[in-house]
Amino acid sequence: MNNLSEQIRQLCQEKNAIIMAHYYQRPEIQDVADFVGDSLALAQVAAKTDADIIVMCGVHFMAETAKILCPDKKVLIPAPEAGCSLADSCKAEDLAAWKAAHPNHMVVSYVNTSAAVKALTDVVVTSSNALKIVNQLPDNQPILFGPDQNLGGYINKMTGRKMDLWNGGCHVHARFSEEALLALKEQYPNAPVLAHPECKANILQHADVIGSTQALLNYAISHSSSERPISNSEASHSQYIVVTESGILHEMQKACPKVEFIPVPAEVDNSKFIIQNSKLLCNECEYMRMCTLQNLRDCLLNESNKVMVDEAVAKDAIRPIQRMLEMS
Ligand code: 13P
Ligand code: SF4
After folding, report:
1. Residue-averaged pLDDT of the chain
2. Are 152 and 95 within one domain?
3. CB of 259 closer than 6 A to ligand 2?
4. Is the C-beta atom of 248 inside 6 A of ligand 2?
5. For ligand 2, what atom is nearest to the CA of residue 285?
6. CATH number, domain with residue 261
7. Residue 234: pLDDT band with limits 50, 70, 90
8. Is the minimum distance from the CB of 166 to ligand 2 under 6 angstroms?
9. Same structural domain for residues 137 and 186?
10. Ligand 1: which atom is nearest the Cα of residue 112?
11. Is the CB of 89 under 6 A from ligand 1?
């Protein structure tokens, strides 16, 4: 551990603080955190922690969700300017108008939304539990789903429902190159493709496994030839092609050191992509990378960048989040 990491751990102890980090955080942030997880796990851990301070190393909606679930705790975010293009693609006033035009519909929102959007929502979902939750809703219940049209399209395909979809998306997942993915599949014919459901349908059609960051990690851990005894009936792998933000590779590589994880590069203005062993041009979420050891240490030391949510908004936003936690 370097000096900053040691100071951070010391401050956590002195202040009874817990550091939570998403899998897309910088490797050194994941390594210093008390808990690393996907959006669902971050919400579940926030709901249960007895720490006095929660430091959320993630993007703003993740810190907001923690604050809504723990209104009496100090929730800090080292990089308060870390937004999310997907959350930004749906403003509360636009959702309100969509809802008003469809009075019989139920609103199901992805967790990548502002507190104000959650306050207008009937049930929140994450990529971990979206299929499970939508499957629990009555068959004849019309649904408005937002803001991620790729995740919504994937749920419609898997459940046979016809949810109306908001046309939002994540700029990082929208950029993956199908051409590069196909070239990698040819180069690594035995490597299963692990993809996040925020990817477009033309990418998801080539995936062997589609799931949240945690689900993709779990799959790699339980199907890697060098990591566990394999029964004859089960497939085992020593390589995976990964189509999501490349921060997840840190935890994958830590959990499965002998396995090769190959990130798929972004399509940048349709220009050339680089394939050279595993040195690829990868996708990184600039918002997720805003948290650094330096701003994390400063934030903890000064207890700065407190996340605040308007009380009335929080009162309405907590219901669909709790409903999600109950239905997960
Ligand atoms: P997960 O819930 O799968 O970790 O995804 C969060 C996210 O922001 C994906 O872009
Ligand atoms: Fe938002 Fe996309 Fe970044 Fe995830 S990867 S936090 S959806 S901008």
Report:
1. 92
2. yes
3. no
4. no
5. 3
6. 3.40.50.10800
7. low
8. no
9. no
10. 8
11. no
* Ligand 1, pocket-test mutation among 125, 127, 242, 289, most atoms within 8 A of CB: 127
Helices (H), the chain: 3-15, 27-32, 39-48, 60-69, 85-88, 92-100, 115-118, 130-136, 149-159, 171-174, 178-187, 201-204, 213-223, 248-255, 293-302, 311-327
**The tokens of 62 are what?**
């993740």
Give yes or no: residues 34 and 118 share one domain: no
Nearest-angstrom CA–CA distance, 123 and 117: 11
In tens, the pLDDT along 144-201 reads 999 999 999 999 999 999 999 999 999 999 989 899 899 999 999 999 999 999 999 9
Calculate how far, in angstroms, residue 126's C-alpha sits from the geometric centre of ligand 1. 8
Q: How confident is the model at residue 8 (pLDDT cuts 50, 70, 90)?
A: very high
**pLDDT tens sequence across 28-56:** 999 999 999 999 999 999 999 999 999 99
Using one digit for the tens of pLDDT, what is the confidence trace for 262-295? Answer: 999 776 544 444 433 333 345 789 899 999 999 9
* Ligand approaching nearest to the C-alpha of 283: 2
Atom of ligand 2 nearest to the CA of 286: 3
Predicted TM-score (pTM) of this structure: 0.93
**Residue-number span of the structural domain to which 15 is assigned:** 3-82+289-312
**Ligand at shortest distance from the CA of 83:** 2
Contacts of 170 (CB under 8 A, 6+ apart): 84, 85, 86, 112, 148, 150, 198
